[in-house]
Amino acid sequence: MTLPNPLDDSNTHRYIPNASADIAAMLKTIGVDSIERLFDTIPADVKLDRLLDLPGPWSEIESRRWFRGLAAKNKSAADHLSFLGAGAYLHYQPACIDQLLTRAEFLTSYTPYQPEVSQGTLQSIFEYQTHQCLLTGLDVANASLYDGSTALCEAVLLAQRVAKGRNTVIVAKSVHPQYVETLRTYVQNLGIEIVQAGWTNDGRVDTAALRAACTSDVFAIAVQSPNFLGVIEDYDAVVDVATGAGAVKIAVVCEATSLGIVTPPGAHGFDICVGEGQAWGIPTQFGGPYVGFMVVKDELKRHMPGRLVGETVDVDGKRAYVLTLATREQHIRRAKATSNICTNEALIALAANMYLSLMGKAGLREVGSQCLQKAAYLRKQLAAIASVSLPFSGPIYNELVVRTPYPAKEILMDLEHEKILGGIPLSDFFLGHDHDFLVAVTELHTKEQLDRYAAALTAAVARERR
Amino acid sequence: MTTVLEPEEVATSAKTAARGGLIFEHSNRGRRGYQLPPLDVPEDAEALPPSLTRGLIDEELEISEVGVIRHFTRLSKLNVSIDAGMYPLGSCTMKHNPRLNEEIARVPGFALSHPLQADHQVQGNLELLWNLEQALREILGMPAVTLQPVAGAHGELTGVLLIHRALARGGNPRKYVLIPDSAHGTNPASAAFAGYEIKELKSNARGNVDVETLANAVNEDVAALMITVPNTLGVFEPDIRKFADILHAKGAYLYCDGANLNSFVGMARPGDMGIDVIHSNLHKTFSTPHGGGGPGAGPVGVSAGLVPYLPTPRVERRADGTFYLEHHYPDSIGRMRAFNGNFGVLVRALTYIRSMGPTGLRRIAQLAVLNANYIRARLRGHYHLPYDAPTLHEVVFNDKKQQEHHVATLDIAKRLMDYGFHPPTIYFPLIVAGALMIEPTESEPKEELDAFCDAMIAIAAEAAERPELVRTAPHTTPVRRLDEARAARQPVLRWRKTR
């Protein structure tokens, strides 16, 4: 196969400016006669003597055609009425956020290692950190982690660093099961044992089981609220058990808009709050990029993973922002760092900052209130359907488990035929829950849509009965 | 009487005036930046028990949409970016971020799909992921790829966990991972979190690892060598195949940090070098925007022996051409993250790979290496080159010559800002005192490279003739040098209302 000649201008590409005249002049300055000579240090036996076997190069026209064709093969909230949640929620996305986010100065800049030319990013992170503190009622937030699941992992690792010599963490069974799976992966070689505590009939963590599991080896207890079943936990009861055991108290929040109306973990005495910020107007986009957050009590700040931005002044005394307490981090501390994280989710944290700033204290309250009220309305409508039951009696925010006498997957398929993405089967996560599915409601749903859902579920149950 | 300001004073006063400040300082009672439709269901006053209901967030946060847009637009203007000009951060591959990628990632069928939908509802997403896996397999020359890791360091952790699991299945996970002294800090950190102790390997005078150094270090306690190819000096490891043989003979693995893949994409393949595990930073080689520090993605390619241990779920294709997520791999290390990785980043990367095609991918490496060598040729009389070996996509100078005038790397970096350039990576790799690590990428046209080199040469002259000017730089940026010690000594990590 003949390989393309870089000096032949029929091989230039729209993303790569230099053409043959530039290349020839540059080679002359370098003092070599061809680009290939610059690759002489790669041994011949590992050099590729052919082109990669891939399609392209495609024009924008060809790419649009193919990728839009793929997107059209999906069924999604773009063309269905969706009630999907379980850690990823469809909320209102203010129009200006994406417009601001795609400003080149935000989109195409890098980690703000040079503060004099990165104040935009640095100040935004400082604001984001402040928002996290206000919402969770805790003292110090970092610049972001990958997502909620890895934020839980980092919280557990942080807790173990603090509680030296203990090796067991108790994680409620009602913490998002994929978060727990991720945690198992993270700690598999670190000598940490994960013990799970189940739930009672109200869907809240079984505090008796929690207390029973509290051996002297337990260094942390982690619960999620609203939990994976949609139920708001009794934080005080959990804190009571954890304090008795001398364990670090970790709260997990998967539905971040709940922080606008439900009492925050900091007010109940939790040491660490971690969670997923996707609900703050970030598209669900099949799972990412999202933004993990971590907020801790002040005394834990030097154990934090990830970047932190602090306030200082420049030589003229002008207020300015800078990455700080970096001696915790991998580029300084290497194998002894508090985490291996480098690249985080800065742009998504910026989007969250914009969302929280636009909504303001009234908007965050109203989103929370509307989610709560609409879920309460749907809960009543569903409870009234013959042969539909709601297995958990505890207080909910915007999500609930629905049970029918029929396999959840069949019911959900019936709803799909009505162009409704009606829920997520619990059997994907827990044994013995074949008839249960999770239904999420947000401020985007109208009463008419909620009624339509109740009607469609009524019809689906009736159809299965025949 | 009105005072007429000089243009520079106007600019300064605009920067320092009350129009700046934190978002919280723009709050005014009663303003709003949002509107929701009125609640259309009957209100249930008992929906949430009072004991679970919080009070209003106790800080000012009342800003109009106009206020929010102006605030963030002004903030953006305090950043420099790749769209404004060359951003030559070594090891970071700051290349052009095509806007087509942004458009495709926002197509509603992708953007509004949910991570827990049934496989039959997301055939388009799964087909896209499968195609990206195939493309990366071909580019890397590796038999299998996982798309789950969401950053380079996340990929490293995945890769070392895979090695640990494979060795543990053989009866002994071993104790040590070998890492050269020129490595990124994430390498030792990732290996430590995967359960290993680190042994550092000394680089030789060329910045490479000697075959003997490695051979002496490898024994039955060693799990792997983690090495960056080409290394952080931009020098290819000529003995990479021998490294693989030495490691494999002792049952150990060769891990490649793929941060520098941009230098040889389409020209050579890690799989042909005997590499067992490689992560690739899609936000580097494959153009997904850095976004001020993320998001990224760090897919991992593995050799055949490690395939059973890959994270779950995995995308698979049935004989009828449909796709599904397979969760059942009993030997898997497990899940690295909830859901399906940074899908939006993966969409952008595949869009880019299709835009480039095989000829374009090869041209990336060729022009990136040409650009770096052009800078090297133009600057080598003006700055000291501590390692003289031929380099690929980046070049590392230092401040040895300028130190004669008591001008340091940090000063040179700051002075570059006055010339309108983002500085290179500085003081890394650690094996070079006062390193200035320059990576132009293929995105820079010759005239931009010339402007950068002219600026660097002018700064070298200033260092000799007006060193104070360089030592006190930058002079034209929104803020000047910061008191970083104060930030760390008395940390102020959030805004508080001053009452």
Explain what this protein looks like in three dimensions.
The complex is a heterodimer of chains A (466) and B (499). Chain A has 3 domains: 1-68, no CATH class; 81-90 and 361-465, Aspartate Aminotransferase, domain 1 (Alpha-Beta Complex); 95-355, 3-Layer(aba) Sandwich (Aspartate Aminotransferase, domain 2). Chain A has helices at 20-30, 60-72, 95-101, 104-107, 119-136, 148-162, 177-187, 207-213, 235-245, 330-333, 346-383, 408-417, 447-465, and strands at 81-82, 140-141, 168-172, 193-197, 218-224, 248-253, 272-276, 292-296, 309-313, 319-323, 399-403, 420-421, 424-425, 436-440. Chain A is globular. In chain A, strands 2-8-7-6-5-3-4 form a 7-stranded mixed β-sheet, with helices on both faces. The model of chain A has no long low-confidence stretch (mean pLDDT 97). Chain A is built from 13 helices and 14 strands. Chain A has 466 residues and is of the alpha/beta class. The longest helix of chain A has 38 residues, at 346-383. By secondary structure, chain B is of the alpha/beta class. Chain B has 3 domains: 17-76, no CATH class; 100-355, 3-Layer(aba) Sandwich (Aspartate Aminotransferase, domain 2); 366-485, Aspartate Aminotransferase, domain 1, CATH 3.90.1150.10. Chain B is 35% helix and 9% strand. Chain B contains 15 helices and 12 strands. Chain B has helices at residues 7-16, 65-76, 99-105, 108-111, 123-140, 152-169, 186-193, 211-217, 240-249, 343-379, 400-403, 409-418, 446-465, 467-471, 484-489, and strands spanning 144-146, 176-180, 197-201, 222-228, 253-257, 277-279, 300-302, 314-317, 323-326, 395-397, 425-426, 436-438. In chain B, the strands form 3 sheets. In chain B, strands 1-7-6-5-4-2-3 form a 7-stranded mixed β-sheet, sandwiched between helices. Chain B has a 3-stranded antiparallel β-sheet with strand order 10-12-11, covered by helices on one side. In chain B, a hairpin with a 5-residue loop joins strand 8 (314-317) and strand 9 (323-326). The radius of gyration of chain B is 26 Å and the shape is globular.
